[in-house]
Amino acid sequence: MKMGSILVVLVLVNAVLYGLQAVANPPDLIKIQSAVAKGAVCLDGSPPAYQLDRGKDEGVNKWLLHLQGGYWCTTVEECSMRMNDSSGLGSSNKMTSLYFTGILSDNKELNPNFYNWNRVYVRYCDGSCFTGDKQESLVDGPYYRGGRIFYAIMDELLKLGMENASNVFLTGNSAGGLAATYHCDTFKNILPLSTEVKCLADASFFIHLNNPSGFVNLHGSVTYLPLSCTSMMDAASCLYPRNVVPDIQTPMFLLNSAYDTFQVASAIRLPENSDRSCLYNLTGCPTAVLDAWINFRTKFLQEVTDLGNLSTRGLFINACHTHSQSEFQSKWLGDPDSMLDNMTISEAVGEWYNDNKLIQLIDREHIYPRQCVVDASEPYACNNYTIGASYLCDVNQNKSNIPSVSHSYDRVERKMYYT
Ligand SMILES: *[C@@H]1O[C@H](CO)[C@@H](O)[C@H](O)[C@H]1NC(C)=O
Ligand SMILES: *[C@@H]1O[C@H](CO)[C@@H](O)[C@H](O)[C@H]1NC(C)=O
Ligand SMILES: *[C@@H]1O[C@H](CO)[C@@H](O)[C@H](O)[C@H]1NC(C)=O
Ligand SMILES: *[C@@H]1O[C@H](CO)[C@@H](O)[C@H](O)[C@H]1NC(C)=O
Ligand SMILES: *[C@@H]1O[C@H](CO)[C@@H](O)[C@H](O)[C@H]1NC(C)=O
Ligand SMILES: *[C@@H]1O[C@H](CO)[C@@H](O)[C@H](O)[C@H]1NC(C)=O
Ligand SMILES: *[C@@H]1O[C@H](CO)[C@@H](O)[C@H](O)[C@H]1NC(C)=O
Fold first, then answer.
1. Cα separation of 56 and 228, whole Å?
2. Which residues form the signal peptide (predicted)?
3. Is the beta carbon of 363 within 6 A of some atom in ligand 4?
4. Which of 142, 182, 190, 184 is nearest to 162 (CA)?
5. Which residue from 104, 81, 76, 77 is spatially nearest to 91, judged by alpha carbons?
6. CATH code for 3-412?
7. DSSP string for 32-97
């Protein structure tokens, strides 16, 4: 896997200010200085950080915690490079405040179910999906302390009022979605029994194709991976949601595309341009590429099916060629091509959380990836890293704003499984 390229993409995706139209400043970045004494530090030894926008009205006792994504590091060298990364994915000294959009938005129109909750953007700077717990480290880092960071931030939020919350929603995308998966049940246990707790993992249903190299040993992750899994198999296998999700007791929602760009890019390994040009125009796409995609989707849907059928589990599995859909406004609410069964992601997640509705939507009809709308305000530069990114580029490498493409390749009539 081309870690460097993918990291750059994720840095762009995560650091870029999607909500340019937002008038207000983003919520302040708050660094937890007291966490340093507990050894809960970013890769470079700096304090962990979060951003908080306070709830109001009916949302005043409700908390939504969104764990930031941004891939991970699996070697000392990668983790060292991350410490200097301008995105802040390895150091709070380099972080900037990010806008709250999508599931984090404070705008009732843009985020009708959670806009007035206390919303927290938990910033990612440990490279371990919030699992690291290595005692020893070099004086100048990297420090491997992601698991400690998770609980140091939770301690702070409990004191800020989360200990009396009526509702808590632990969410995250990509690496943050993995973290939400690993911590879901233990997180519920730090809250009062009366608190309603649910979790959402966005763009983190990584299917088990390759054995992960080094991650667990480097970060000392075993303590913070679910015991229900690590007691049954080797810790490295417990990085994979399929080995963890079936044992999670807390209600869990899986939001993912069966054509997640990040996974497809790492799983299929095509020359960079072929993926993109095919997406732009499937008509000219080589059969080998299409077959590889379809093959990936088949495996993906099989793993989802293998999880078994639990009535508390929410599913929203669409076919957009995209990665991370909860944080980005156009995907969260607005893009008709992201919808399933006439529901936006925002509606599906909202009804599942608030109304305990059974939402299990799987797009079994679009056998090819869909070009879902890219919001014109997403200021992603098109570049040569786009194979793993969540936006499209046109043939001139310009950002593509193709609104509603005709899906002429979708021969079967749209059909959803909704229960
Ligand atoms: C990170 O930056 C520091 C200070 O600029 C430099 O001394 C160090 O070599 C850099 N480390 C890496 C891995 O690039
Ligand atoms: C939680 O509620 C209790 C009882 O009302 C109160 O004493 C405590 O200060 C509250 N905690 C926070 C962090 O507000
Ligand atoms: C897609 O590619 C085919 C074959 O190269 C071409 O005939 C067609 O005009 C292209 N469609 C678009 C919209 O560019
Ligand atoms: C789950 O079970 C229900 C009822 O037994 C069924 O209708 C539904 O299709 C199942 N969902 C999935 C995703 O298999
Ligand atoms: C989809 O939802 C829209 C807006 O709520 C509604 O106007 C439309 O009739 C719905 N379409 C279907 C097929 O249910
Ligand atoms: C992408 O790479 C090609 C070939 O290496 C180069 O010609 C082109 O300028 C690059 N595009 C961008 C946007 O960097
Ligand atoms: C697309 O990119 C080309 C070359 O980079 C540029 O000349 C052109 O103006 C761009 N078109 C649009 C619509 O932005």
1. 37
2. 1-22
3. no
4. 190
5. 81
6. 3.40.50
7. -GGGGGGT---TTSPPPEEEEE---GGGTTEEEEEE-------SHHHHHHHHT-TTSSS-GGG---
Structure-token pair, residue 58 = 């009916």
159 lines ligand 2 (CB under 6 A): yes
Which residue, 320, 317, 319, is CA-closest to 361? Answer: 317
For residue 66, count other CB atoms closer than 10 A to its CB.
28
Q: Which atom of ligand 6 is nearest to the CA of 397?
A: 13
Nearest-CA residue for ligand 1 atom 4 is 84
Active-site pick, 174, 221, 237, 326: 174
DSSP 256-295: EETT-HHHHHHHH---HHHHHHHHH-GGG--HHHHHHHHH
Residue type, 179: A
Atom of ligand 2 minimally distant from the CA of 162: 13
Q: Which of 108-117, 162-171, 320-329, 392-401 has the lowest mean pLDDT?
A: 392-401
Nearest CA to ligand 2 atom 4: 164
Side-by-side strand order, sheet with 196-202: 29-31, 49-53, 118-122, 62-67, 167-173, 196-202, 252-257, 314-318, 360-363, 416-417
Residue 29, H or E segment: strand 29-31
pTM higher than 0.90, yes or no? no
Chain centroid to CA 58: 27
Is the sign of the CA dihedral 99, 390, 314, 227 positive or negative? negative
The residues spanned by each domain of the chain are 3-412
Q: For the segment 98-144, what is each residue's pLDDT rounded down to a tens digit?
A: 888 889 999 998 899 999 999 999 999 999 999 999 998 778 899 99
For Cα atoms 304, 314, 254, give the angle at the middle one, nearest 5 degrees.
55
Residue at token pair 């995250």: 172
Write out pLDDT tens, residues 170-182. 999 999 999 999 9
Q: How far is the CA of 321 from the centre of ligand 3 (A)?
A: 19
How far from 98 is each of 20, 130, 338, CA to CA, in Å?
11, 19, 24
Is-catalytic flag, 106?
Answer: no
